[in-house]
Every structure is written in C-alpha cells, then in structure tokens.
Specification:
Layout (H helix, E strand, L loop, with lengths): L1 H28 L4 H36 L6 H25 L18 H9 L7 H25 L6 H19 L6 H17 L5 H9 L8 H25 L15 H27 L11 H10 L4 H11 L7 H26 L9
Helix pairs in contact: 1-2, 1-4, 1-9, 2-8, 2-9, 3-5, 3-10, 4-5, 6-7, 7-8, 9-12, 10-11, 10-13, 11-13, 12-13
C-alpha cells in the first residue's frame, strides 16, 4: 500500500501544476503572443508527443510492473472489479462517440478520444476530500486508471499505425527478443536496456507504429532486484520528470485553443458532442453499470468502507480524460488539422463537467469531517 500512497501524493501535486499549465496554454493561445506559441508547437510538437510521451508510457509501464511484482495487481480479488469497470469505461464512451458520429465517416476516426481517464486529474480531485476517502476507493480508481492506460496503449499500437514496414517490424521483434534475453540472464545495468529501448523507439517509428509504445514495452523488460532494483531506480528517477516537466510540456503544446472566430454553434459539432458526451455520460455509465453488474453477480465486492454513491461519484471522475484524451484525439486527426480545435473543446468540456459534477456528488457522499472539505 505504500507504493500507492506515494503514487497518490505525486499525482495529486502534479494535477495542480497540470491544471495551471493548461489554463496558461489557453490564455497564451488567445493573447497577442499567440504566434510565439505556434512557433513553439511547430518546433517541438513531434519531440513532445512522440519522444517525451514515450517516457510517460515507460513510467506507466514501470508502475504497472511494480504493482504486479509487489502483489497489488496480481490478486484476482483486487483487480477484477477495476478491470471490468475499466473495460466498461472504454466501450461505452466509444459507442457514444460512434453513435453521434455515425453519419459522419470522416469524424468516426476519433472514436478512441473519450475512452481514456486522466489519472493525475481524477486522483487530484479525489484527494481534495482527504481522509474522508477510503483507501480501497482510491485503490479502485488507481487500478482502474492503470487498466485504462493499458487499453489506451493497445489502441495506439493497433489502431494508430500507418504504412506498416515488415522489415522494421522484424527489427523491432529482434530488439524485443534481445531485451527479453538480457533480462532472463539477469543483466542489472540499465544502460543496455535504455540503448536497446532507443533502438526500439526508432524501429517502431519506421515500422509505422506509434513509437510511444516502445516506452511501455521497454518497461516490461526492465528487471527487478532484491538489493538495488533497476526497475525502482529508473521509476524513481523518471516519475518527477514526467509529473513536473513532461506532462506540463504536453499540456502547454496541446491544450491551447484560439477562441478567435469560433461561434457558439461549435458546441453542437459532432466531434465536440461525441467527445464531451463520451467522457461525461459514457464514462460514468460504463464504469458504474459494469461495476454494478459484476458486484450483483457476486464476482466482486464493493470497495471496503465505501458506498454506492461514492462509487458513482468516482465513476463520474473517470470522465476526466484530459491528457490521454488530448493525446488520442491528436493521433486520431493528425492529418486533419481542422478537427483539432473541436477535439480540444470536447475534451475540456467533458473533463470539466466530469470533474465538477463528480466532486459535487462526492461532497455529499462522503461523511463529514472537520479536517477535510465539507
């Protein structure tokens, strides 16, 4: 449980910084200095979205592997409920988006945008209630978000590829095999893994698969250890950089929206509606209904010391999709720049509604405490 407490503390603090940077990006995009922001995006967007985000997924993978190795993610009784909830929280938002965009084939490609939960923001909102939140409910949200990230990585690997090169796919397979072998033979130095990981990033990029997947695959190959663990060393080094540098840079490059020339009618655009309703409506329905079903079937239990109202409030918070939704939306319309504004508006509206309504529900669902929010 100490692992998850440290993780929650890091995510809560970084969510505040992420929110501030997102607001600054929005203000910057609508200021007289907007041209500087555009120059910044033109120069660094590829480096941030394809390069630095690979380190983000590397960190996610390391967290998942550590959770498994420490037993937190290895027991069926602990993971079944958040696993099923995460599945519902991906399927239903995608169906909502596809339903709204059914007659618009050119926008259907954005179906994956509302399937993801932003773990930093969701846990940040939940942390506002302090000790009133049962640890089991925090753990439920954290594990759900982890499975959510795995689903997003799978979508990126399978759906967001283009012009596959079988030569470079073969090279990627060879590099993965070498990584597996040096792990199997207990190589504990980090530099061979990082060097091969860089090669894997390049080979996946030229293979036509989004190279951020390399970060997650590399994480699975980093070894653990009894005395000095390469996995722990690398995760502890990366986590502050990801939380306080990489994610803010991503928000700075992807969250800015110029409101000049926009009309209120954009709120009825099918991309905006599909993403906003997918996040706010689809997420809460998918997470809660799938959780309710598996609990009623007696295959899982309600998180200890929590109520149905609290679980519903957390289900709504899962609709905060900010970082991952922006990332998936950007990938969806990478060659259709005209839809990126709609993506950002939809993500912001859906995430804000989920955060505000979810927090409001939880305010009444948690017991009163003098030492926390009332």
């Amino acid at each position: 449980m100490q692992l998850f407490k440290r993780f929650l503390q890091m995510e809560s603090a970084s969510s505040i910084l992420l929110f501030i940077i997102a607001v600054l990006a929005l203000l910057w995009a609508n200021s007289s200095l907007a041209f500087i922001q555009q120059q910044f995006i033109d120069k660094f967007l590829f480096f941030i979205n394809e390069g630095l985000m690979a380190l983000f997924f590397l960190t996610v993978g390391l967290e998942i592997k550590r959770g498994y190795l420490t037993g937190q993610l290895s027991r069926i009784s602990q993971v079944l409920l958040p696993l099923v909830a995460a599945f519902g929280g991906m399927i239903v938002p995608a169906l909502v988006y596809c339903g709204i965009n059914y007659y618009h084939p050119e926008t259907l490609r954005g179906w994956a945008t509302p399937v993801a939960t932003d773990i930093a923001f969701a846990l940040g909102v939940l942390s506002l209630f302090g000790q009133r939140v049962p640890n089991t409910l925090k753990l439920f949200l954290l594990v759900l978000a982890i499975f959510d990230d795995i689903g997003a990585i799978f979508i990126i690997a399978v759906y967001y590829n283009h012009g596959l090169s079988y030569l470079f796919l073969t090279i990627s397979g060879i590099l993965l095999s070498i990584l597996f072998l040096i792990n199997h033979f207990s190589v504990r130095q980090l530099w061979p893994y990082l060097l091969l990981g860089a090669g894997l990033w390049l080979s996946l990029f030229y293979a036509g698969i989004h190279p951020t997947v390399a970060g997650f695959l590399l994480a699975l190959m980093i070894p653990d250890g009894e005395n000095v663990s390469p996995l722990h060393v690398l995760e502890d080094f990366l986590k502050p950089w990801v939380a306080y540098a990489i994610m803010p840079l991503f928000a700075l490059a992807n969250a800015g929206i110029s409101l000049k020339g926009l009309h209120v009618n954009i709120l009825t655009d099918v991309v905006v509606l599909g993403i906003a309703l997918g996040l706010f409506v689809g997420k809460q329905l998918g997470v809660f209904i799938f959780s309710w079903t598996i609990i009623k079937l007696k295959l899982a239990k309600l998180p200890e010391k929590s109520s149905w109202a609290q679980l519903y409030g957390v289900a709504i918070l899962c609709g905060i999709g900010f970082t991952m939704s922006l990332f998936l939306g950007t990938l969806s319309f990478a060659n259709e720049g005209g839809y990126l504004v709609e993506v950002r508006i939809g993500v912001i509206i859906g995430s804000l509604l989920s955060g505000l309504i979810g927090a409001s529900i939880l305010m009444f669902a948690f017991p009163k405490s003098k030492n926390s929010l009332s």
